[in-house]
Amino acid sequence: STDEKKSSRHMVQLSQMVKFIEENYQKDISRDDIIAYGKVSANTGNRIFQNLLGESPIQHLIHVRILHASKLLRQSDLTVSEIAFQCGFHDSNYFSLQFKKITGLSPRDFADAQR
């Protein structure tokens, strides 16, 4: 049916956009960069993310960055600022705010709890 074709096309487009995020989360990428990779309009790209993942492209990017940051906090002796910059954040305060919003802990408390 038409709905099934549209749905499977959206899954393919989402996987392309998610792959782009995974491969580029360390870089300075925008919502438009992510959506362009899915070859869809801004509205369609936002709708695909919202419908299939329950979050915006930028929220997903932040989640991916925080996931990678949490690995670095567990496995390295880098400072919080170094980890923030390695994971694509330009501001370590913004990084700490987003990290706490997602994990419930500050990056430092998270790292201490892992040791």
Average pLDDT works out at 95
Number of helical regions: 7
Number of strands: 0
End-to-end distance? 53 Å
| Biggest sheet features | none
Q: What oligomerization state is this entry in?
A: single chain
How would you spell out the order of helices and strands? HHHHHHH
Shape: elongated
- Approximate strand percentage: under 5%
pLDDT < 50 stretches: none
Percentage of residues in helical conformation = over 70%
Q: How does the helix and strand content classify structurally?
A: mainly alpha
Estimated radius of gyration: 16 Å
What this model shows, in words?
The radius of gyration is 16 Å and the shape is elongated. It is mainly α and 115 residues long. The longest helix has 23 residues. Helix content is 77%, strand content 0%. The mean pLDDT is 95.
Brief summary of the model shown:
By secondary structure, the protein is mostly helical.
